[in-house]
Specification:
By secondary structure, the chain is mainly α. It has one domain. The protein is built from 8 helices and no strands. Helix 4 packs antiparallel against helix 5, helix 4 packs across helix 6 and helix 6 runs antiparallel to helix 7. It starts with a helix and ends with a helix. The model has no long low-confidence stretch (mean pLDDT 89).
């Protein structure tokens, strides 16, 4: 559901900024079936789980037309930022539940809420990595001066077909640093380490 909320947030913000594409496509729904991607939501997560023990995947991206957005070149960056921000809001909400719920709820409920915090921190920060097609790529692009923005867009267009390779390289090379950062953020939010 965190991935679904992430995707729906992109669509809602795009709609607010003037692009109704996601609404007209029926994608502004929390029904997970509308967001399933056969490869990214089923095949790849199963494959990565059984080969590495780590689950990696994605939902079907919510469509939007950047030419309909207000805010000029900042529009796509704002839409991209909406997904990770939704994950951070969920993480903070459940972290507060964990902090103030210990002793009032069963250890199972607290542990489940802690996992929700961890998953949403992972989703939020991972999606902010500036590798296309992750949200971080569009966020970075929106803050670049126009001439660098044009170059970034060309690089993004060329590298998108190899993005899965770049993402696996990132995970392979920087997993230790990334997981340490997530653990730090988790412990700051909930008050203990997982």
């Amino acid at each position: 559901m965190s991935v679904v909320v992430h995707e729906v947030s992109h669509g809602y913000v795009a709609d607010i900024l003037g692009d109704p594409t996601a609404r007209f496509s029926g994608r502004l729904t929390l029904n997970p079936i509308s967001h399933l991607d056969p490869f990214g939501s089923v095949i790849l997560p199963l494959l990565t789980f059984f080969t590495t023990g780590f689950i990696f995947g994605w939902a079907k991206p919510v469509p939007y037309n950047p030419y309909n957005l207000q805010k000029g070149k900042y529009g796509p960056g704002i839409v991209a930022l909406a997904g990770p921000m939704a994950n951070f809001v969920i993480a903070i909400f459940f972290a507060l539940f964990v902090r103030f719920g210990v002793g009032s709820f069963s250890p199972f409920v607290i542990e489940l809420a802690a996992y929700v915090v961890l998953i949403n921190l992972l989703l939020g920060f991972f999606n902010l990595i500036p590798i296309p097609p992750l949200d971080g790529s569009k966020v970075v692009a929106s803050f670049l001066p126009y001439n660098l923005y044009q170059k970034w867009s060309r690089i993004e267009a060329v590298t998108t077909q190899y993005s899965l390779i770049f993402l696996f390289l990132f995970v392979f090379l920087f997993f230790g640093i990334f997981s340490s950062f997530i653990q730090l953020m988790f412990s700051l939010l909930v008050g203990f380490s997982f």
